[in-house]
Specification:
Structural class: alpha/beta
CATH superfamily: Collagenase (Catalytic Domain)
Shape: globular
Number of helices: 5
Strand content: 15-25%
Strand order of the largest sheet: 4-1-6-9-8
Order of helices and strands: HEEEHEEHEEEEHH
CATH class: Alpha Beta
CATH architecture: 3-Layer(aba) Sandwich
Number of domains: 1
CATH topology: Collagenase (Catalytic Domain)
Number of strands: 9
Length: 210
């Protein structure tokens, strides 16, 4: 009887983790700040487009215990409407603040490795002036899964050769996905961001599409 009572006390004191979700997978929601360029007086993409990008990212990151919530949609200064060079991308770094992920939405994003080509998105790292910043850039031509792909890079994943994987350029029947190795990498980066203070989660860890 004494052993049984002790077991009951230990179980009562243990933190509750939902069935099928390891303690390290407990969901964490990060803030996502959008800065959107304007063209001919209007945002290059409307709010509904941003909402769909976030919704798709949340669907894909949920199994890794990560979610995103929009935390501001602000106009991007006119000087950054079109990004044609590496320097143009680096010049976004001073607009990046601590504790949030930043996504810049621009009118056009040139492929800096192929002259005359334009791309849909990029995860960019800047170490200018001794300060390290990394952020996501989306072009107005980006499809609805491009934010999820670039956030995959933000959380440490390289490109994949598996068709249909969200980190692959080759599609396949069915929705895109992260494999288990990629999800583990996302969880490791989540822990690193939290420990370093680079990202601070929302208090209630509740994603929202509003």
């Amino acid at each position: 009887m004494r052993a049984a009572a002790l077991l009951c006390l230990l179980l009562a004191a243990a933190p509750f983790t939902p069935v099928g979700l390891a303690e390290d997978d407990a969901p964490t929601t990060f803030r996502l700040r959008f800065l959107v360029a304007r063209h001919e007086g209007a945002p290059v993409r409307p709010r509904g487009w941003l909402d769909r990008q976030v919704r798709r990212a949340n669907e894909l990151f949920a199994p890794a215990g990560v979610a995103f919530v929009e935390d501001g949609v602000e106009p991007l200064p006119e000087a950054h409407t079109t990004l044609l060079s590496r320097l143009d991308r680096h010049l976004l770094a001073p607009l990046v603040e601590d504790e949030r992920i930043h996504a810049f939405v621009v009118q056009a994003l040139a492929n800096v490795d192929v002259e005359g080509d334009f791309i849909r998105g990029v995860h960019w790292r800047s170490r200018r002036s001794g300060t390290y910043r990394h952020y996501v850039i989306l072009s107005r031509i980006a499809g609805e899964y491009v934010l999820a792909h670039e956030l995959g890079h933000f959380f440490g994943n390289p490109h994949s050769s598996t068709p249909g994987n969200i980190m692959s350029y080759e599609g396949a029947p069915g929705p895109p996905f992260f494999d288990e190795a990629q999800r583990r990498r996302i969880r490791r980066h989540r822990r690193r961001f939290l420990e370093s203070g680079e990202l601070v989660p929302v208090a209630d860890d509740a994603p929202s599409d509003s």
